[in-house]
Amino acid sequence: MQIEQFKWIREPKSCKISEGRIEVTTNQHTDLWQRTYYHFQNDNAPVFQMETEETYFSFIVKTEFEQSHHRFDQCGIVMYLDSENWLKASVEYENEQFQHLGSVVTNNGYSDWATTAIDASVKTMWYRFSRREDDYCIECSKDGINFSQMRICHMFHGDGKIRFGIYACSPEESSFTAVFTNLQLTECQWKPHDGQQPD
User: Fold this and answer.
1) What percent of the chain has pLDDT above 90?
2) What does the alpha-carbon distance between residue 126 and residue 130 come to, in Å, rounded to a whole number?
3) Under a CB-based contact definition with an 8 Å cutoff, are residues 72 and 180 in contact?
4) Exposed, middle or buried: residue 119 (CB in 10 Å: 0-12, 13-18, 19+)?
5) How far is CA 51 from CA 81, 126, 189, in A?
6) Which one of 6, 99, 130, 166 counts the least CB within 10 Å of its CB?
7) CA distance 124 to 92
8) In the predicted model, is pLDDT for residue 104 greater than 80?
9) Which residues contact 181 (CB under 8 A, 6 or more apart)?
10) Exposed, middle or buried, 90 (CB in 10 Å: 0-12/13-18/19+)?
11) Which tens digit of pLDDT belongs to each residue from 27-37?
């Protein structure tokens, strides 16, 4: 991938970009969330994205977050279309025992949050984000080889031209440096469904 294709939506506290490596230091009180349950709206996380009209592809990236140490510190993949339509996947620090590996899908201004608990010792995670027209698949991996499905979703405004990439943020009074490497853009690894045929 060519990092030159990526552009910031809100720049982070600091950022270092070298060939194949992006280091992002988060700002305090930054996050992405819309309305659901908590009722508040947060729309100020730094997002680094590229634009495409390609309707079938996969985006892969390795995240390292050795420095995350405060509740909700997070970094991962994102598709940010606008403030009310986006998705993200990340590991969110909770405490010294566990973290949340999860994803958020926001359609028309309402977010959900699907998570599973993982050990706090985990400090790297790979993600694979795949597109099939206006449907999307998010997967994760510990080794960058064997990926497990996190979720499949539909984005109501996810057809045509989209933007996708990476993000990092610290919703509370914290800051840490996230590292992104091994960015790849490949043919779609999310294969057509081979079970029940469409109605």
Assistant:
1) 92
2) 13
3) no
4) exposed
5) 10, 21, 19
6) 6
7) 12
8) yes
9) 20, 21, 22, 61, 62, 64
10) buried
11) 999 999 999 98
